[in-house]
Design brief:
The structure is a single chain. By secondary structure, the chain is an all-alpha fold. It has helices spanning 22-43, 54-69, 71-75, 77-95, 99-118, 124-137, 139-155, 161-185, 187-200, 209-227, 233-236, 252-278, 289-294, 297-314, 325-355, 360-385, 389-407, 412-422, 433-441, 448-460, 466-485, 492-501, and strands at 3-5, 230-232. It has a two-stranded antiparallel sheet. Helix 4 packs antiparallel against helix 5 (99-118) and helix 21 (466-485) packs across helix 22 (492-501). The radius of gyration is 31 Å and the shape is flat. The protein starts with a strand and ends in a 17-residue tail after the last helix.
Length: 518
């Protein structure tokens, strides 16, 4: 794929061969400083470091350096919105690092860099292709600039990069050889050479200086792509405002017949849900509420998505059907029924949670259903306002970004633990000990406050499982305290949780009445 340098113009000028300017030197300095900081705070001789809030401060340092060096990003208005989004994700990394917050920060940073170089935002689907390609091809930016710098130095008669590399190689190998020879004759040189080799050694823990050098070099290559972003010619020439081409329908009559039939089928399902799921009417003999509420959730979601797809096809903007009042009325009715179907599906998931327990997968299902309902509402708005398909795609992408951004600041571990522990004695739940064991298997520290409150309630009510709850709390709090001692793993959320949790209660002899029987 053809690649050109970053430029605000649409003509994509080739890289010039002028001497490096001050801005280029400042970028080299910024990349070097950021790479060394990343090695000091993240690597620390560890192959897979556990990071804390320090990753958020590093993210802001990266963003600040880019704002200082990239004038296009500072002057472009759309880039400013992306910078705000990246800043919010960076703040989420400071509060409590997560993979979701890190991905959102990288997406916001990439948009802030690339928007002024590609013009308008256009279609979110095009950016869905651009961003991964830029991530894959980003190392080429450093190679292209290194080649350009070598050509400039060769043209000016300076020492080439190849000559510098060869000189360093000869100097290094020769120095090591002479130090080996001198170490036998001079014990002081021998001790110094041993210490130097120990520091450079490739140890299994990855604590040698060579590993640090590799980490810094890899970080510089990755960071350089953000200071000198590439511009892909093929994607730059793509028409970002062209909506997707959808098939045409033969006439009004087939669409009206289909919409009328679909409305009747959906009405049958929705009337059944309203009668038995929403109002709580008595089910027929042989069918329990649990069977009715817990079956067919995936099928109902698929039906809602198919309904949305059919509406997009038959009432695309500019088509003859879009101007027919009767067709639009049937479509509005069907979308309303589909939204009711999605709401009933959400109620089914909630009923499942009530009967069993709350898990990550069930929270994800509720969030997905909420996005589906939002998408259906946006389809209705698109039809009413006669918006094009690009507007619909971008609106859904914006809603998804907002929802994911909010999720970065929610402690789902704490929500799951609190729900399951507070409802452990509810009569409709099955064996509640499974809820407690699931809370213990979450593995993070977000459950600390929920375990503290559950222990207090268990002690006040003379619950026989007080010992188990206290043991879980003690394990989680000890793990969090050990994490907070290390400045690389310290988090703002962890400090707040420890402050709220207070000291662990003193160990007391267990009451025989509270000890579970074998």
């Amino acid at each position: 794929m053809p690649i050109a340098s970053a430029s605000p113009d649409q003509s994509l000028p080739a890289r010039n061969h002028s001497p490096p300017r001050l801005s280029f030197v400042l970028k080299v300095l910024a990349v070097t400083v950021l790479a060394v900081l990343a090695d000091f705070t993240l690597s620390a001789g560890q192959v897979l470091p556990q990071v804390g809030s320090i990753i958020g401060f590093l993210a802001f340092a990266w963003l600040g350096a880019l704002l200082a060096c990239d004038t296009l990003m500072r002057r472009n208005r759309t880039s400013r919105f992306a910078v705000i989004g990246a800043s919010l994700a960076g703040f989420a990394l400071i509060v409590e690092p997560s993979l979701l917050a890190g991905l959102l920060f990288l997406v916001g940073l990439a948009l802030a860099l690339l928007l002024p170089r590609y013009g308008e935002f256009g279609n979110a689907l095009v950016w869905l292709l651009r961003l991964p390609l830029h991530g894959v091809l980003s190392p080429m930016a450093a190679l292209l600039d290194a080649g350009r710098l070598a050509r400039i130095m060769r043209r000016r008669g300076a020492i080439t990069l190849g000559g510098i590399g060869g000189g360093l190689l000869v100097a290094s190998l020769g120095s090591v050889l002479f130090l080996l020879l001198f170490s036998d004759a001079n014990p002081l040189i021998g001790l110094g050479f041993s210490a130097l080799w120990e520091g450079l050694a490739l140890r299994s823990e990855g604590s040698g200086l060579i590993w640090h050098g590799v980490f810094v070099l890899a970080s510089m290559v990755a960071l350089w792509a953000s200071f000198r972003p590439l511009r892909l010619r093929a994607l730059a020439r793509a028409s970002v405002r062209t909506p997707a081409v959808l098939p045409a329908w033969p006439g009004v009559t087939p669409v009206v017949m289909a919409l009328a039939a679909f409305n009747l089928v959906f009405a049958l399902q929705n009337i059944s849900d309203i009668t038995f799921l929403w109002s709580g009417a008595r089910l027929p003999e042989g069918v329990t509420f649990s069977q009715y509420a817990h079956r067919g959730t995936q099928a109902l979601v698929l039906a809602a998505l198919l309904a949305a797809g059919f509406v997009l096809v038959c009432l695309r903007t500019g088509s003859p059907l879009a101007g027919k009042a009767g067709v639009r009325l049937l479509v509005y009715l069907w979308i309303g029924q589909t939204m009711l179907l999605v709401a009933s599906t959400m109620l089914r998931v909630i009923a499942y949670i009530e009967a069993y327990s709350l898990t990550y997968l069930r929270i994800t299902a509720l969030i997905f259903l909420f996005l589906v309902m939002t998408g259906l509402a946006l389809i209705s708005w698109r039809i009413a306002r006669q918006r094009d398909g690009v507007w619909l795609v971008n609106a859904n992408a914006l809603c998804l970004a907002i929802v994911l951004g909010v999720c970065c600041f929610i402690n789902f571990e704490g929500v799951i633990a609190r729900w399951n522990l507070e409802r452990q004695e509810a009569p409709q739940t099955f064996e509640w000990r499974r809820d407690t064991s699931y809370v213990g298997s979450l593995g993070g520290t977000g459950t600390l406050l929920a375990l503290r409150d559950a222990s207090v309630v268990a002690e006040a009510t003379q619950n026989r499982d007080l010992v188990q709850l206290r043991g879980l709390r003690q394990a989680v709090q000890a793990r969090l305290e050990a994490q907070q001692v290390d400045w690389r793993r310290w988090t703002l959320a962890g400090a707040w949780r420890l402050q709220q949790a207070g000291l662990l209660p003193e160990e007391t002899l267990p009451n025989p009445a509270l000890t579970p029987s074998p």
